[in-house]
Amino acid sequence: MTHSTYEQPLPVELRVQAATPYKADGAPIEGGFHTYPEMAAAGLWTTPTDLARCAIEVQRSLRGDANHVLSADMTSQMLDAGIGKHGLGFEIGGSPENPFFWHGGIDAGFEAVLAAYQRSGNGAVVMTNAQGGHLLAHEILRGIASVYGWPDFHPIVRASVKVDPAILATYVGVYEITPTFSIAVTLEDGQLTAQATHQRKLPLFAESQTMFSAKIVDARLEFFATDTGQISHLVLHQDGNDMRGERKR
Predict the structure, then answer these.
(1) Which of 41, 42, 178, 224 has the most CB atoms in a 10 Å sphere around its CB?
(2) Predicted structure pTM score
(3) Which fold, 165-247?
(4) 3-class DSSP state of 170
(5) Is the pLDDT score of 199 beyond 80?
């Protein structure tokens, strides 16, 4: 990895090589890129090529072909899925026969995704320099998966049904999943939308009278009512996890 560094702030001589970060509306981030003290979480400056080299080294170390940094046993432990399907540094997905490791990254104006299979050697890295760029990155990843015949990451096909606007109106509200993370559901010109904390608003499409999904992210919202018919909570189905959100208003 010859074009990567944890130097913070980025040295002046390297800034000419850094991309300009942008907001979702296309305007540059005020003041340019941020300086982050959290080195492991947000301090890496790198390129897609260097991140791909990192993924390849993990794949080779797991097979025992390289082991320049980690032994095969240590790499295997790193990729052992624990709570929430997390290994050490990566999230783990796929099937037991063909698992993959992946990681997404979001800083102000920079959003990226890395995904690589543990055994086949396949993988991809997509980096963007705009808020909301992870949506494009995942779309590109799905395209790569389709073209190269990967077993995962394919576009999701869901059913679509019509729901009475009067029923849609009953779902409007704010649902608290954690004290710092909520989902606001609104109805605008007959279109149900959802906006999670610090994220953009997304249109929702009905799969049934109570189940809704977003087209550009793999997330589904399921609404639940009390015995009296009042909507009490929702469940966010995403990344294999089910997270309950209580209706606050």
Answers:
(1) 42
(2) 0.72
(3) Lipocalin (2.40.128)
(4) helix
(5) yes
